[in-house]
Amino acid sequence: MEWLLSALILIGAGFTLVGSIGLAKLPDFYTRLHGPTKATTLGVGAILIASAVYFSLHQSLSLHELLITLFLFITAPVSAHLMAKAAIHIRTRSIQRTQNKPEFDSEHR
Amino acid sequence: MNLLAFNLPLVVLLPFVGAAFAAWASRLNRLGAAYTSGLVTLLSLALLMPSVPLPFHDQTLIQTWDWVPDLGLYFSFRLDGLALLFALLILVIGLLVIFYARYYLSAKDCMGRFFAYLLMFMGSMLGIVLSENVIQLVIFWELTSITSFLLISYWQHRKEARQGARMALAITGAGGLALLGGMILLGEMVGSYQLTHILAAGDLIRAHDWYLPALILILLGVFTKSAQFPFHFWLPHAMAAPTPVSAYLHSATMVKAGIFILARFFPALSGTIEWTLLVGGAGLITLLIGAYTALFKHDLKGLLAYSTISHLGLITLLFGFGTQLAAVAAIFHIINHATFKASLFMVAGIVDHETGTRDMRRLGGLIHYMPHTATLAMVAAAAMAGVPLLNGFLSKEMLFDQAVIASSISHWALLLPVLVTIAGLLSVAYSVRFIMDTFFGQPKSDLLHTPHEPPRFMKIPVDILVVVCLAVGILPALTVSPILETAVAGTLQAEVPDFSLAIWHGFNAPLMMSIAALIGGVALFLKRDTLFQLYQRHEHVDAKRYFQASLQGILNLAQTVTQRFDKGSLQHASAWVIAVSLAAGIVGFAGFNGSLLGETPVQSVDTLTVIVGLLGALAALMTAIWHRKRFVSLVVIGVVGLVIAIGFVKFSAPDLALTQLSVEVVTIVLLLLALYFLPQASPKEINRVRLWRDALLAGVSGIGATLLTLSVLTRDFDSISTYFLENSVPGGGGTNVVNVILVDFRGFDTLGEIVVLALAGLGIYSLLQGMTLPAPKNDLRGRLWNPDKHPLILQTLTRLLLPLMLMVAVFVFLRGHNLPGGGFIAGLIASVALIVQYLANGIDWTRTRLQIDMHWAIGLGLLIAIATGLVMMAMGYPFLTSAFRHMHWPVVGEFELASAIAFDLGVFLVVVGATVLSLVQLGRLSHSSHAGSTWKS
């Protein structure tokens, strides 16, 4: 059991790290948007599962984590969606690969 | 049930309760207010009746309840001869005035408002005269200032009424402050604020170093209220009030309050040379100035106003003599003046009512139209002039007698009999003028309507008062003697000196002076034309102008000083605050000798704390540097808030961390809503000098705060937290000490805070109500806002969030007493849940689905909180004590049901109400600001 929990925590931490690096390193807004969403869903999710399992085994049944997960799953996509919408509206600069409408770029930039 | 144990406070408080009833009754029936007021006055009088015999048997009735005993403050009432006389005057003349006003007020005037003010004024006056505690006396004193302000400004649409009321309030209010100072000095000298002790300690007071300052302060209160020179000028301007008000305020009550203080503290303060000079001097000057000016007033009420000033001066002068017989004369004149002056004011009101003018130059010959009123006026005016067989004659004789006695003191005092005779002469002259110019001579034809007698019942109060004037004047020993003797005994707090109330004392000096005054007065009236020309030369000397000029001067000074510190700029104001606290800190540090650090060694710090701390400092710095990039600085401010929250978690304050987090969310929403209306580009506002000054201030205060914290934390000190930690469970029934402190130990503080929060919420609401601001249609680069106002994904998912967040709020609320949480945090979480709905779905959508008026939430919350406290009080515990019991519910588990949870519910409701109300109102502002543009929500 120890091994499983440790693995979960490590996975969570790993995804959070990768998400943070992505946020810093990726070339444009749309790609960067991926970073934090990975961190909040998979990263935090794994850690929460670990927490729920650990406390349910050692103390009484612990379901707070379920609620946190629920909150995250509702809010993370909404915020990502809103940010993306805003980015499209103000036409943030983006790299070639994220543009599926090339004429957009040539006309306005 | 012994009525004598508690009737006095009822007598005083009944008019206040009655005022509400009178205001309500006027809605049912126009005259309802008048009848209610009459009934209330009668009831007060009836309640006073059982205790009336006591003062006649030399007994003083005192009824006392604890108020704040530690401060010497008691809810305490006293009835002795003096108090009885004044209470009867206030109630009986009040009854007559109510009767008179019922006919005087026209259909346009709001009856309820008038009678409610009048009753409140009556209650305040009764409070002054029946108070045993001097601080309580001052409270009622201030109440008379306020209620008289309301009464004088009753005709709010008239400019002179508003001005006169403001002047009266400014002068008497300032005097009230001085009086409070004097009373506190007096109480500190004696060691008690109870009149019984103060009156018995006259010798101690007169020998005390503080005697003179206390005397001057008290006299300032007296002179302002009783319109004594040099504060007499407010009274004529107060004549803008309806005549029944003038009849009441300036005959028996308001202006007599000052005189009452003179009489009340006569045994404690009189008998020194300072008393005689100050009181007697002011009285004499006022007597002469008032009588002289009254002669030249063309307005009936103006004449009566200055005559009132002069008679008040007369009474003050008598008290100034300081002898016991003079005090007898003063009390006697108080009664006489109240009767004849009230009837004269009522006559002036009748004349005004029937002819439409009070200008004596336009009046004349009214005796042909209203013989009854004219007869009444003549008798009352004769009493004012001091004609024999009327009450005014008796007290004026006593004044002359006292003046003759006092003249033997020194050479200068020889002037006294001459001066009072001149005053008497002037008063005869203006009384004759009042009658002759109004009722005799040629009838004038340019009146608005042909005058006729007023309704029968309007004259009844005047009839009664005039009959009293006659009865006292003819048979003084049978009528006024007993109550006068009792009142004098109450005033002097000693044996009543021998005095004789007789019309005939033989041919002596006072009689000669009276005869001289009468003949001289009539002669002066006949020769008045030359005097009028003389007066016109200095008529332009108007105290009102000086008053307004000095008032404007004070206002300008205040404005100049304020503008130095408050230029309407937040940065400027906070710079001052920081600079001053820095200066205070530096002074403190400079005066402190000893090592900066204490004995306790400084704890070692771990890396994490340092990193987080540095992060916070860096974020704070960035906020300042990036302050012109608004959104960036907003994000950085968020970082500062998060760091603080983490700090709270680190140092085991989860409650504070939770609060910090939820406040952070609300603040960011608030700032975003506000930023929308601020200029999009922040101009560069500060120059290099300002920059360095601010940096210096910030740096030095930061270092100072660090040093201060270090020097405190390295010392052993007793903190109060031990007490709270130990008593939290046994005393408050909760293991969450923070919450127990909030709702129980310091519940009163919390109550104050939620009241402030409620007021702030309501204030924001009303400030923004109906406001439209120019809202930008696009951003700086000219991009229009996104037309998709409420994105579908946002809408759908936030609707899912609402029940979840409310569940969290309830959870946090319920566990608050024992674990981190509580009403405040739960309230913030619930507010965020609601605000998110408003943001995602729009105001209209949410409002149709969430039909809760946040005003009601605020009101209900406050009510619940206060009711919880009151229930505990009713059960005999201090306000807001918590009662608790442990409960066990299946599923939910063990929890506590404390009365504190009801209080916490109040907190919760107020927080939700105030937060949602103000944020939604801000949001609505952007909504309405866009209503005219191309966008529809």
Chart the SSEs and their pairings.
The complex is a heterodimer of chains A (109) and B (937).
Chain A: H1 2-25, H2 29-32, H3 34-58, H4 64-90, H5 102-108
Chain B: H1 7-28, H2 32-48, H3 53-56, E1 61-68, E2 73-79, H4 81-104, H5 111-130, H6 134-152, H7 159-190, H8 195-200, H9 202-207, H10 211-225, H11 234-237, H12 243-252, H13 254-264, H14 266-269, H15 273-295, H16 300-321, H17 324-355, H18 371-385, H19 391-406, H20 415-439, H21 456-474, H22 476-479, H23 481-492, H24 509-526, H25 528-537, H26 543-565, H27 570-590, H28 607-625, H29 630-650, H30 654-675, H31 688-713, H32 721-732, H33 737-745, H34 747-768, H35 792-815, H36 823-841, H37 843-849, H38 854-874, E3 884-889, E4 893-898, H39 899-929
Helix pairs in contact in B: 1-2, 1-5, 2-4, 2-5, 4-5, 4-12, 4-17, 4-21, 4-23, 5-6, 6-7, 7-10, 10-13, 10-15, 12-17, 13-16, 15-16, 15-20, 16-17, 16-20, 17-18, 17-19, 17-21, 17-23, 18-20, 18-21, 19-20, 19-21, 19-24, 20-24, 27-31, 28-29, 29-30, 30-36, 30-39, 32-33, 33-34, 34-38, 34-39, 35-36, ...
Explain what this protein looks like in three dimensions.
The complex is a heterodimer of chains A (109) and B (937). Chain A has 109 residues and is mainly α. Chain A has helices spanning 2-25, 29-32, 34-58, 64-90, 102-108. In chain A, 80% of the residues lie in helices and 0% in strands. Chain A is elongated and about 50 Å long. Among the domains of chain B are: 271-552, no CATH class; 608-682, no CATH class; 733-937, no CATH class. In chain B, the strands form two sheets. Chain B has a two-stranded antiparallel ribbon. Chain B has a two-stranded antiparallel ribbon with strand order 3-4. The two termini of chain B are 69 Å apart. The model of chain B is unreliable at 932-937 (pLDDT under 50). Classes of the chains: A mainly alpha (109), B mainly alpha (937). At the A-B interface, helix 4 of A face helix 35 of B.
